[in-house]
Design goal:
The complex is a heterodimer of chains A (292) and B (111).
Chain A (H helix, E strand, L loop, with lengths): L6 E6 L3 H4 L9 E5 L9 H14 L6 E5 L8 H8 L6 E4 L5 H18 L7 E6 L2 H5 L1 H5 L5 E6 L1 H8 L11 H14 L2 E4 L8 H14 L3 E4 L5 H8 L3 H19 L5 E3 L2 E3 L1 H20 L1
Helix pairs in contact in A: 9-10, 11-12
Chain B lengths: L6 E3 L7 E7 L5 E7 L2 H18 L5 E7 L4 H15 L13 H11 L1
Parallel strand pairs in B: 3-4
Antiparallel strand pairs in B: 1-2, 2-4
Helix pairs in contact in B: 1-2
The chains are: A alpha/beta (292), B alpha+beta (111).
């Protein structure tokens, strides 16, 4: 299934009141977190809670993703043993640094899918890239198998690894964003941007969402329901954009019918990439309408 | 599963339940519930706890539950966690919950 992932809402994995109904805010995806938002002594409790929530709560059309602990921690393997059996749509693997990390996760998930009677490949993988090495290996990570459906930037760990500082302009993340985006495009999977932590700074958030949309990202991780509407409004094609896209497609169809090699609209030449973009705008608008 | 010591899980926050399990003599399951919605739901809470304990093959215990409006899945999860902590389980067999062992046995029997 081709999903749109404009927003991925993080939900702490050990908090039932937050796990009960995050889908009412209509994010495209929910990420139940077993990693950073769960203290070490509550890892077992969060695992049981998210497992049972996935087994019993109907989250509608919202994509259900679980961020597990890294596989080199004492918790990652058991996270997979539990969560894969609850059949989420995807597992978000933190701190992915190489294709081997994804292949290892893929192999473990395949074994569990087989034991649990799930179709092989039904649980997808989203690779979170959060270190310099991960950014350098971004394409190898993004193309590490059919199960990998998206790559995501995790900025806070990346900034720490780089010994740099987080700024409002985000220039310190520019190279990582571009590298991850190019890797995703080359591998034909989704690219997801990092969270914006200052929930009170709506202007800063809006600027960042507009910026990453222009770069080409498919969506953004969010940490609060109030951030969802802003991302959706920026990532959803406007009426004007849809109208223009329709006219581009009509002009292209007309030119093809008449055997004309050149497409013109409002006195401007329309070439193949513009037509492709127009189809993408219409496709996205249809998917958004289907979710509404 | 054998209960070796006191095990506790959950909180008294809204939407959650605090479950405390301790071993006792005999094979009975003794459940005591304090709930903000006790008048309407204490029977369902007790059923959810007992079903979860039976699924894990646990008996001979006393359960104290302090509920603040937890849904069934949370009651189940907190009970499972408390049992594992009380049983000092280091690696839980997740196949037990998804009934994989039974499916394998069925497959062997039908061959």
């Amino acid at each position: 299934m081709n999903r749109i992932r404009r927003t991925m809402l993080f939900v702490p994995g050990n908090n039932p009141s937050m796990i009960n109904d995050p889908h009412i805010y209509k994010p495209d995806s929910i990420i139940f977190d077993l990693e950073d938002s769960v203290s070490l002594k509550e890892k077992d409790a969060a695992r049981f809670l998210v497992y049972n929530a996935l087994k019993s709560i109907d989250y509608g059309q919202t994509e259900r993703v679980v961020r597990i602990n890294a596989l080199n921690t004492p918790y990652g393997r058991e996270d997979l043993e539990a969560i894969v059996r609850a059949a989420p749509d995807a597992i978000r693997l933190p701190k992915a640094e190489s294709a081997d990390d994804l292949c290892t996760a893929d192999q473990i998930i395949s074994e569990i899918e087989s034991k649990a009677g799930l179709a092989e490949g039904s649980v997808k993988l989203i690779a979170a890239i959060e270190t310099a090495l991960g950014v350098i290996n971004a394409y190898k990570i993004a193309s590490a198998g059919q199960r990998v459906t998206a790559v995501a930037l995790g900025a806070e760990d990346f900034i720490t690894d780089m010994k740099s500082e987080r700024t409002n302009s985000g220039f310190e993340l520019h190279v990582a964003r571009i590298q991850i985006l190019m890797a995703a495009r080359a591998a034909k999977i989704d690219a997801l941007d990092t969270v914006f932590s200052d929930v009170a700074d709506e202007d800063g958030f809006k600027q960042e969402v507009m910026y990453i949309k222009k770069l080409g990202f498919d969506g953004k991780s969010v940490i609060h329901p109030r951030q969802i509407e802003m991302v959706h409004s920026i990532f959803t094609p406007t009426v004007e954009e849809v109208s223009y896209a329709k006219r581009v497609i009509e002009a292209a169809v007309e030119a093809e019918t008449s055997g004309s090699g050149v497409i013109a609209l409002d006195g401007k030449m329309i070439d193949k990439p513009i037509v492709e973009r127009a189809y993408r705008v219409i496709g996205l608008a249809k998917e958004v309408r289907a979710l509404a | 599963m054998q209960i070796k010591c006191v095990g506790e899980s959950g909180t008294t926050a809204s939407g959650d339940i605090l479950i405390k399990i301790e071993p006792c003599e005999g094979e009975d399951i003794d459940v005591e519930i304090y709930s903000t919605v006790g008048k309407q739901f204490s029977r369902q809470i007790k059923t959810a706890i007992i079903n979860t304990l039976q699924e894990l093959n646990v008996s001979g215990i006393r359960v104290l539950a302090k509920d603040n409006g937890a849904l069934d899945y949370a009651i189940k999860a907190r009970t499972q966690t408390a049992v594992c902590r009380a049983g000092k389980v280091l690696s839980f067999d997740w196949g037990v919950l998804s009934d994989e062992q039974n499916k394998e046995n069925d497959a062997v029997c039908s061959r």
